[in-house]
Every structure is written in structure tokens, then in C-alpha cells.
Please model this.
Amino acid sequence: MPKMKRDILICGEPVLRKKARPVRNVDQAVRDLLESMVETMLEASGLGLAAPQVGESVQAIVARADDEEGTLIHQLINPRLVTAEGEQCGREGCLSLPTLYGQVTRPERVLVRGITPAGEEVTVEGEGLLARALLHEMDHLRGVLFTDLAPEESLVWLVPDAEEEDGLRYEGTTLREAQEAFDRLRQRGRGRQ
Ligand code: ZN
Model:
């Protein structure tokens, strides 16, 4: 089996700030890209992933929704927001900004229209976490990261701490400190290649 998993780019890579181009033809290359994004998202235990995060500046996203019936994975090409209602405020993170979290206010329910890998128009209804994930991934297609939306004072690192009940604690940070940490992480990543 070919290796499908892709490397996830870290904040600071220029492609993460670019506006992604729409997909004109839903061909095998796009289907392969989406497949590899699903694999990469699941492997990283993420709730979603956008194509720019694996270095492809095209409008394609994947998102997962878990409920009592199992896991449902959405793959959307050229997604666009149709309606949004309500409001939720919660902690948000991103696979391109590992272990950083911040408070982001989002609509509670959304309708997103896009194209499936089979080339069919589809409307996805998202509520709660799925709404958050869909909006977060669509932001990536415009070059927007959650740190653009979260108040700086809400930014925290999730730090392992054996003394805490759940083995973790949050530690406050700043945008600048976070960016410096991601710059170092990217340098280390390059060193491995
Ligand atoms: Zn993200």
C-alpha cells in the first residue's frame, strides 16, 4: 500500500497564509489528496484538516464528526458557508499550531455547501464541534489561523504535568512567544529532511 500520510506544515510556512485556489476538475489527483488528508487527520487525532496544511494551496477540507453511531468523515471541495446561526465560545486548537489553544467564538450551527470526491454537490449540516471544525478549516482556505480570531490573553499551551489529575495543565503564552516556538519547531523539521 502506498504511503498516504502527509507531513503537516507548522505555522510560519507561507502557504498557510495564502488564499487557496478553487478546484476546477474533481479528478483522481484531488481524490488522492483528500484521501491522504483523511489519513493524516486521523493519524494526528485531529477534528479536521485543510489542504494548505499539507502544502497544497487548493480549496479542499476534511472534517470528522463523532457521535454514538460512530465516526463520520466529511470531504469537501470548494466549500462555502450557506447559513450560520447561534453562537458558541470554546477552546480551539490546530494541527499546524501544535499544543497551542485559544478561545474562539463561532456560530453554533452552519450549513456548508461543497462538492464531494465523487463530484456531487452536497450540503453538510454542522452543529457544535463539527460547525467549529468546518469553519476553522474554511478559514485555512483564506489563510486565516485561529490565532487571528482568539483574544491573545486566551492563548495557552497544553503542557504535560504528572501532578495534575488528567496529566495536563494549561500555561498562558503570547502570540510572539508562540510564533517563536513554532519557528524553532519548523527549523528542527527542516533539519530532519
Ligand atoms: Zn487548523
